[in-house]
Structure formats: structure tokens, C-alpha cells
Design a protein that fits this description.
2 domains, 6 strands, 15% strand
Length: 214
């Protein structure tokens, strides 16, 4: 093995350890640090990510940190390579993973890069402060709004009815409660709307944290 290859393997192991620690302990900043490093490395990190996922068959999931662990790793793998992620999810299901894990990883893999390119996100900028509108190809629009302190994020109908609400809490370790209203439950786009909402929630948190650090 070359020195460069050995050095990269060490970097992958260290970054994976950081990501897993962040996921299992609910430490957003540490998890993001590991996630970003592994995503930057890309394909060479896939074998170790897959090994970490298959350390368990996930047939019995009892604790939230287990959900964060498997969903975080599958999401990372999905971001690096959709085909690899699809194969891993199929194997997890074939191995008899818990129904909660099955639903979660299936939802993660349901939204593809091709789907993403067909949607138009208007007015949501790097400051996140003004909200924005999620516009679908069929013309439907879901305004995204936050409250004054940026602890609540909502997707609404154009009539102003709430579809999905994210309520955040925690000063050191970010957590959030997701409320799905009945009208949202029938939306085929619901899985990726929730994932996008989580993304915005993290961005809002990081935005607030950077201001507080000044």
C-alpha cells in the first residue's frame, strides 16, 4: 500500500469515528465535521462506510442513537453514490432490519439527484432569515417560514395552512420535533420535504451559532 493510500485510510477512519460519535451522542457540530470530511473524500470512503453500517443487521432498534447512526451513514453514502446506497438498503431489508429502519432508509433513498434537479427553490438564501418558497413542477408552492428566534420552521400551503413544522431545542446538542399535519401525510413529496426541512433546520442552527460566537 502506498504512503498516500495509507494516509487516506487513516483519514477515513478518523473522520468516520468523528461522524459516528457525533451521530450517537447527538453532537451536531462534530457529526457535521465528520460528514463533510468523508463527503469530500468521496468514493474511497465507501467500503469503510458500508462496513460501519453492517456492524449490525438492525433487526432490533431500541434507542434513538441507533436510528441516528444508521440513518446518518446511509444518508452520507447516498450523497456520495446513489447506486451503492440503494444496494446497501436492499441488503439491510433482506437481512431483516427493524421496520423503523426499513421505512427510514427507504425514505432516504426515495429522493434522487434527478428528482432534486426538477425542483425550484426560490428565495431561500445563505442567511435563511427571510424564508422562501418551495415551488414544484406542477405549480404548487410551499412557503417556508421561521419565527423571530429561528427555533421553529414551517412549510405551509399557499393558503397559510401548516403542513410540516420543525420545533428545535437544545443549546449544545440540537434536537427537533417534527409535526406532520394530516394534509401533509398524503403528499408523495413528504419524505424529501422532511429531509429538506432538516437541512434548513441545521443551517438555521449553524447561522445562529455563528452569530452567538461573535
Amino acid at each position: 500500500m502506498s504512503v498516500q493510500g495509507s494516509s487516506q485510510d487513516q483519514e477515513i477512519r478518523a473522520s468516520l469515528k468523528t461522524l459516528i460519535r457525533g451521530l450517537t451522542q447527538g453532537n451536531l457540530e462534530e457529526g457535521y465535521e465528520g460528514y463533510k470530511a468523508l463527503f469530500k473524500i468521496g468514493a474511497p470512503a465507501i467500503p469503510q462506510i458500508k462496513d460501519a453500517i453492517f456492524k449490525s443487521n438492525w433487526s432490533q432498534v431500541k434507542r434513538p442513537n441507533e436510528i441516528r447512526y444508521v440513518s446518518g451513514l446511509v444518508t452520507l453514502l447516498r450523497d456520495i453514490n446513489e447506486v451503492e446506497a440503494d444496494a446497501v438498503v436492499k441488503q439491510l431489508i433482506d437481512n431483516g432490519c427493524d421496520i423503523t429502519v426499513k421505512q427510514l432508509v427507504t425514505s432516504i433513498c426515495r429522493f434522487t439527484l434527478a428528482d432534486y434537479l426538477t425542483y425550484d427553490i426560490r428565495g431561500i438564501n445563505n442567511t435563511w432569515s427571510g424564508g422562501g418558497t418551495l415551488e414544484l413542477p406542477d405549480g404548487r408552492k410551499f412557503p417556508a417560514t421561521t419565527n423571530l428566534w429561528k427555533i421553529n420552521l414551517e412549510f405551509k400551503t399557499e393558503a397559510g395552512e401548516t403542513l410540516v413544522r420543525f420545533k428545535t431545542s437544545g443549546l449544545v446538542h440540537l434536537s427537533a420535533t417534527v409535526e406532520i399535519q394530516p394534509d401533509a401525510a398524503v403528499l408523495s413529496e413528504l419524505p424529501w420535504v422532511i429531509m429538506f426541512g432538516w437541512y434548513l433546520t441545521v443551517m438555521l442552527y449553524m447561522d445562529t451559532a455563528s452569530v452567538a460566537a461573535m
